[in-house]
Specification:
The protein contains six helices and no strands. It is mainly alpha-helical.
């Protein structure tokens, strides 16, 4: 699992670098060359979509997602532990929904391509089921701990 964790984090770093370079190329082409690269927007959009869902999986693994700690702290001490245990279960349910609905969206996008690059839209939509599955796996790992 450690290898998978490192691979996902490395991919997030690579995607962030790709998006940054892509957007800088778009700005350069627009303001220096005075002729906009037509492909940079599609690359940035696809990279951002993957970065969001893979980054969400990393955040689940690190326990960095938004939690209602303020509300949990207001609970009486006997209820705090069950409330904290409920968080990974809610994430598992949410991740299952993202995975299933993302799979359906990916299948729907299989017949579509992007306007400029002709890339299958299903490649972009695949970020949802992959990220959702990784979120679910990481939430289940938190339940075991």
């Amino acid at each position: 699992m450690r290898l998978l964790d490192r691979a996902v984090e490395g991919l997030c770093i690579a995607l962030l670098a790709l998006i940054s370079a892509d957007l800088l190329a778009g700005i350069f082409s627009r303001y220096v060359l005075e002729r906009t690269f037509v492909w940079y927007d599609e690359v940035a959009r696809a990279g951002f979509m993957w970065l969001v869902f893979l980054g969400a999986a990393v955040a689940v693994r690190r326990g960095a997602h938004f939690g209602l700690h303020v509300f949990v702290e207001l609970l009486p001490p006997p209820l705090k532990r069950p409330a904290l245990a409920l968080t990974p279960l809610v994430i598992v349910v949410f991740a299952a929904a993202i995975t299933w609905l993302g799979w359906l969206l990916m299948r729907h996008g299989a017949t579509q391509t992007t306007a400029v690059m002709g890339m299958p839209v299903s490649w972009i939509y695949a970020a949802l089921p992959v990220g959702g599955a990784l979120m679910g796996i990481n939430a289940l790992r938190a339940l075991k701990a």
